Amino acid sequence: MASKTAKTSADTAPKSEGPVLLSGGNPQIPKGYGDAPVQAYIEAMPGWKHDVGRRLDTLIDETVPAVKKAVKWNSPFYGIDDQGWFLSYHCFTKYVKVTFFRGRSLQPMPLGESRHQDVRYLDIREDEPFDEAQFVDWVKQASRLPGEKNCERQSRGSRPGLLADPRRKTIRQVPDRAGLIARTQLPYRFPAGFSSTRCNRT
Q1: Does residue 125 have a pLDDT over 90?
Q2: Are strands 75-80 and 68-72 parallel, antiparallel or unpaired?
Q3: Residues 149, 184: contact at Cβ < 8 Å?
Q4: Maximum alpha-carbon separation in the chain
Q5: According to DSSP H, which parts of 64-201 are helical?
Q6: Which of 61, 60, 71, 57 is nearest to 27 (CA)?
Q7: Which helix (H) or strand (E) holds 48?
Q8: What does the alpha-carbon distance between residue 25 and residue 19 come to, in Å, rounded to a whole number?
């Protein structure tokens, strides 16, 4: 009697279910630099938000050919070498929130207000029209402004607008205060080969 065929490793290996969706349906993507992690994030955006992410990425690429990309804190970031990050976006339950790090310098300003002095938001919803021409104009303006530089004056792993409190092992919220985050520092350089570095250029 022939023996039963042993299961192969492919048969027994657990099947990948793709990235985990966090609160609001936001994809959980490992931190990484370059286009690949951004595309992985977009592919994992659920439902109608996937098309929004794909369109945002295309418009940014077309408007700023030299754009640099990364995924940090489970959000795509877009920036310019020597200037820093100018835009990111994040999935929420009912909208995709686009963050302009120097949004108060844009004309006209995006409508969404922030607790941070320079930041403004654009919320894109499924049942509301998306003004692509205005978005492209904002991207053009934002890409020419000093960007968010997260290596200087920030602790490892902290988000933009957060600083470590030396008196406590916590992170405290602080306003941007017109350049608190390294506007006057030396020109920002993205990591060579766009890999993570010890100085945590996040």
Answers
A1: yes
A2: antiparallel
A3: no
A4: 81
A5: 132-143
A6: 71
A7: helix 48-63
A8: 11
Q: How far apart are CA 37 and CA 3, in angstroms?
A: 46
Whole-angstrom Cα distance, residue 49 to residue 52? Answer: 5
- H or E element, residue 91: strand 84-91
> What is the pTM for the complete model shown?
0.68
Residues 127-154 pLDDT 10s = 999 999 999 999 999 999 998 875 333 3
Tell me which residue has tokens 């490892």. Answer: 156
Closest listed residue to residue 95, CA positions, set 117, 112, 79: 112
CA of 177: how far to CAs of 31, 83, 112, 199, in Å? 27, 18, 18, 23
pLDDT of residue 189: 53
Q: How far apart are CA 185 and CA 154, in angstroms?
A: 13
Q: How far apart are CA 153 and CA 144, in angstroms?
A: 23
